[in-house]
Predict the 3D structure of the following.
Amino acid sequence: MSNWDRFVETFFNAKVMAKYLPDIAYGMLVTVELAALVIVAGLASGLALALLRSLGFRPVNLLIVFVVDLFRALPPLVIIVFIYFGLPAVDVAPSGFVSTWLSLALVLTAFSEEIFWAGITSIAKGQWEAARSTGLSYGQTLMNVVLPQALRLTIPPLTNRTIAITKGTALGTVVAVSEILGMASSAMSNSYNPSPLTLGAGAYLILFLPMVILGRWLETKMAWKR
Amino acid sequence: MPGKPIVEARGIHKHFGALHVLKGVDLVLAERELVFVIGPSGSGKSTLLRCLNRLEQPSSGSVVVDGVDLLDPRTDINHARQRIGMVFQSFNLYPHMTALGNVTLALRKVAGKSRSEADALGSAALARVGLADRAGHTPGQLSGGQQQRVAIARAIALEPRVMLFDEPTSALDPELVGSVLGVMRDLRESGMTMVVVSHEMGFARNAADRVVFMDEGAIIEEGTPAAIFETPGHERTRAFIGQIQRH
Ligand SMILES: Nc1ncnc2c1ncn2[C@@H]1O[C@H](COP(=O)(O)OP(=O)(O)OP(=O)(O)O)[C@@H](O)[C@H]1O
Ligand SMILES: [Mg+2]
């Protein structure tokens, strides 16, 4: 057997791949589900915190900044392990799926709050003044004048950050979530062959490559023209 | 004076921290009057103007516009501001909206007009500033002079009783100044009460009823354009007029 044959046999074993394809497909489904829930929860609460921060209540803002910095500083894996293995000590026992979702959602909340906040503060004071001078309320100005401009500015950095954090769903394998990586590694130990990992990598590419390309496209499209 | 007072600002003081920016300013305008405010940079002209629609909260004093006490906590300031139009040096148009969108936003959200009513009123306002054919353009597609005229349309569409202008032509290339002054002249002829912070002396001479000279947070003197420009009573006024005439 040549080296090349051995390489193919090891990483692209057709029989093994065929056998475990349904497992990987299932893992993909779990990953998509987890990723979607992380994105929805993370972006929604990040935006909510940024809006809350714009009201300018000092104690509230100090708290927001503290929490945001905390979750930006901690490695996501540490948060997952903390929630999954730590919380049962106080009689809360979230599943691996919930632990991973909650951890990544908190991290995305923290990063997206900062990005939304930067977007809101980058809008010139004159925009607020012009709108308020025509009688628009604070909330109306925020919703109709400031946010539409701010969101446009935030889309490129937000897309990149969202992709980076969503890829962290693979960390769920540590707490027994049957997402792509988890399914692929158990398939590998059952078959004594790493081909399922190849399948897993392919699955990640199918999911995330379009997101990366979308991010690149948005970045050029949203380049601000005045 | 042509009529009863419509703007009455009395004893206005404004502090920014330790900085005392307005030191007891009185400014009263009769209906249909056009008052010009001139003065050196940092003398408090913008701050005074912004006190007249409470973009700036005076530290003390009273501001009554069209019979509404702006500093009374019970006053609905958003309602009151519809009646007080403001135009800024930097236009401050909403870049993500068309000219018509800029003009109709407050008509819909504050004045409560339907979209079709707002569009009709907004188009009429754009026509008044000579930009009926630019309704669908975004600010980025308009010249500075056109942008400032859209900003004027945005204010007059709400049918204000008073218009405040803060250096409306200072950011414009010289050849575009005329179109904006032309719109302001039309507005004045239609009987609008106006407070104008500007150094356009030619316009002041032709259009202003009164010129107010401010320095260091106080009104130093006021009078007809001829009196202030030709025979100023104070040395500081004379020095300032001399300075801007040389430019
Ligand atoms: N928000 C603010 N905070 C602190 N200081 C301020 C603020 N706004 C204005 N000032 C100060 O108040 C003083 C008067 O400012 P103002 O803008 O009213 O002057 P101005 O007469 O309009 O000058 P210019 O001709 O340069 O526009 C200046 O010293 C300015 O630095
Ligand atoms: Mg000024």
